[in-house]
Amino acid sequence: MKCQELRLHGFSDSDWGGFIDDMKSTSGFYFNLGSIIFSWSSKKQDIVAQSTVEAEFTAATIAVNQALWLQKLLHDLHVEEEEATEISVDNQAAIAISHNPVFHGKTKHFNIKLYFLREV
């Protein structure tokens, strides 16, 4: 089954150090098919992010993992996406680091997430 409307789109975001007690950030994402939001989450991160960029990469990684699961679910239901799933990130530093390897020395503490996101 193919459908023009079946294009999975996700948005991820985070707050940096939003919890005063332990300075952990919150990751959030949602996915929509067409105009319908059908999957979302807001959860405290397991780590203490050392920068806004790290908090954003953590949120993006969680969103990508959810997108992979949703794609498998759609595949099991014999539904094909028309286009690749897109995950939007609004942090300019995170976007710049993902495109420019010069910054990697400053991001070594979370480079596993960076390489995972690039690979997917």
How does this structure look, described?
This protein has 120 residues and is α+β, with helices and mostly antiparallel strands. 35% of the residues lie in helices and 24% in strands. It has three helices and four strands, in the order βββαβαα. The chain has a four-stranded mixed beta sheet. β2 and β3 form a beta hairpin. α1 packs parallel to α3. It is globular and about 40 Å long. The two termini are 24 Å apart.
> For the residues shown, what is the average pLDDT?
78
Helix content: 25-40%
> Radius of gyration from the CA trace?
15 Å
How would you describe the shape?
A: globular
Order of helices and strands: EEEHEHH
Structural class: alpha+beta
Low-confidence stretches: 1-5
Q: How many strands in all?
A: 4
Major sheet details? 4 strands, mixed
Quote the distance from N terminus to C terminus. 24 Å
Strand content: 15-25%
Strand order of the largest sheet: 3-2-1-4
Contiguous helical run count: 3
Keywords:
globular, single chain, 120 residues, alpha+beta, 4-stranded mixed sheet, 35% helix, disordered N terminus
